[in-house]
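Lab meeting, action items carried over

1. Structure of the two-component assembly. Owner: GW. Status: complete.
Input record:
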Amino acid sequence: DAGITQSPRYKITETGRQVTLMCHQTWSHSYMFWYRQDLGHGLRLIYYSAAADITDKGEVPDGYVVSRSKTENFPLTLESATRSQTSVYFCASSESSAIVGEQYFGPGTRLTVT
Amino acid sequence: DQQVKQNSPSLSVQEGRISILNCDYTNSMFDYFLWYKKYPAEGPTFLISISSIKDKNEDGRFTVFLNKSAKHLSLHIVPSQPGDSAVYFCAASGDTGNQFYFGTGTSLTVIP
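Predicted assembly:
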């Protein structure tokens, strides 16, 4: 299907485990983003990527790792999950930079760290 | 520190009336602003945007107003419809070029 997809949609993991959230887009957009949504904070940028093999930190990158070997995929890895990383994670893509381009969001992944 | 603030967590409006959602920002370098709408269990979807060279942008029932001197923007929805019930996020960009800063969201309920 065309668009932007995230998997899994729901995930429960234990503290200290590594978990990877997947994001895939079919538009060949250059830019991809990872956000987390928490009560009282809205959406906060974790990492973004301007192109394959180019990534940069956002507001809250600590505890997360990203990679982008292919334009269409942008996985987010929690190397050692903590309870504070319980959140809803959204992936987004855009064809241009944030200044002039709207972002298209995936449906989100609800992650619970126990 | 939150650079984009939406001070009203929720808003209820009668169907057919105007909905006004407000957003304040602190960074004077922001020069591009967007509104997103979010339904439960879905990702946000783009609604309308405005650049700092304008003070108003309209798209059908949706109008965004920007007051740069007050660092304030608002979204007007006229007339409001029950399908407009959702969480609305404002977002701002401009100082670093590739990052949007989002507000905390306002939950709008349009009562039939």
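2. GW to write a short summary for the group page. Key points so far: The radius of gyration of chain B is 13 Å. Chain B touches chain A at residues 2, 4, 6, 31-32, 34, 36, 41-46, 49, 89, 91, 93-94, 97-105 (CB under 8 Å).
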